[in-house]
Write a structure and sequence with these properties.
Blueprint lengths: L12 H17 L6 H21 L4 H16 L1 H8 L2 H11 L10 H15 L3 H14 L1 H4 L4 H14 L3 H14 L4 H13 L5 H12 L1 H14 L3 H14 L4 H13 L3 H18 L2 H17 L12
């Protein structure tokens, strides 16, 4: 029997993947402000799960074809999806929050919106006079049509530098972004985290500025997302543990800490945190987080040592 047909507990990987794809297909029928966030969360998780299944040798050709159709529909509906989120800046912020590492065409939909606008201009470029007119209008309205994104550009450049192992170049990219957006809490946290990683005391001021602007909860959540990208899993665990102990209904903190445990291959700790996150999310009406946490639990329970029953020892 193939991997996708093996029943493991309540949910197997094949069921999880098909459920995610089904939710994406439903959302794409009528995109709106209420379902666009779950759509982005589900499609990112579906690709993550598909990659996991493909690597394990499972036959996922049918699911891959369905997910490819979802991707193509997202690209065709890029303008509608970006508009449903609230615009380009809000869309970029949301997709970076959900899965900042993704670079595929179906994920960077704001680029499709820009490309569509450019294509529209080309269609109206009939004759030299029209081309000149469009060029003038485009120049005058460049700030409206193609708004700058110094925060996203700086983070992208920093990540590229870190992949090359050049921490100083990454810090310079963040500093350049702060020159354009000095109050950006995202960039302040990136700066502080990078300097903190080098044991540079100057990072404390940047982190404190972000904490003052965001408040303790949002600061720790955003800092944890940055530290996950930097591979600082122990820092994430420490920060999320502090948050879990100090705020009511810390579903997001449990979910993020589970990711750090998974990165450290402490799978049963990750599973217990996902279970806690799902229980709180269900109680507080956060359906997206509840579904995502349950799906991740199902996947991890099939790969954790001694799959079937969690260890009883307290981590």
């Amino acid at each position: 029997m193939g991997k996708l047909q093996q029943e493991v507990g309540i949910l197997n990987e094949g069921d999880a993947l098909r459920a995610l794809i089904g939710e994406c297909e439903k959302a794409l029928v009528a995109i709106n402000a209420q379902n666009v966030g779950p759509l982005l969360t589900n499609v990112a998780e579906a690709h993550r799960l598909l990659d996991r299944l493909r690597t394990s040798g499972a036959d996922v050709r049918a699911e891959e074809a369905r997910l490819q159709t979802v991707d193509e529909r997202m690209i065709r509906n890029a303008r509608q999806i970006v508009a449903a989120v609230g615009g380009t800046q809000q869309f970029i912020a949301l997709r970076q929050q959900i899965a900042p590492h993704l670079r595929e065409r179906w994920w960077n939909l704001e680029e499709e919106v820009v490309a569509a606008r450019r294509q529209l201009f080309k269609r109206f470029a009939i004759g030299a006079a029209v081309l000149v007119a469009i060029g003038i209008v485009g120049f005058l309205l460049r700030g409206v049509l193609f708004p700058p994104n110094p925060v996203g550009d700086a983070v992208f450049a920093a990540q590229a530098a870190l992949r090359e192992g050049d921490v100083q170049k990454a810090i310079q990219a963040i500093e350049q972004g702060l020159g354009a957006e000095p109050s950006s809490t995202t960039l302040l946290i990136w700066k502080g985290a990078l300097l903190e990683r080098q044991n540079d005391p100057a990072g404390a001021a940047a982190l404190e500025a972000a904490r003052s602007a965001l408040g303790e909860k949002d600061y720790l959540l955003e800092k944890a997302q940055v530290n996950l990208l930097l591979g600082e899993n122990d820092r994430v665990i420490a920060d999320m543990t502090r948050l879990i102990e100090t705020i009511p209904d810390p579903a997001e903190a449990y979910y993020i800490r589970a990711t750090a445990f998974e990165n450290k291959n402490e799978l049963w700790r990750a599973i217990r945190d996902l279970e806690a996150a799902s229980e709180i999310a269900q109680r507080t009406g956060n359906d997206t987080l509840f579904a995502t946490a349950r799906i991740r639990m199902g996947v991890l329970m099939q790969t954790a040592p001694g799959a079937g029953a969690a260890p009883t020892a307290t981590p």
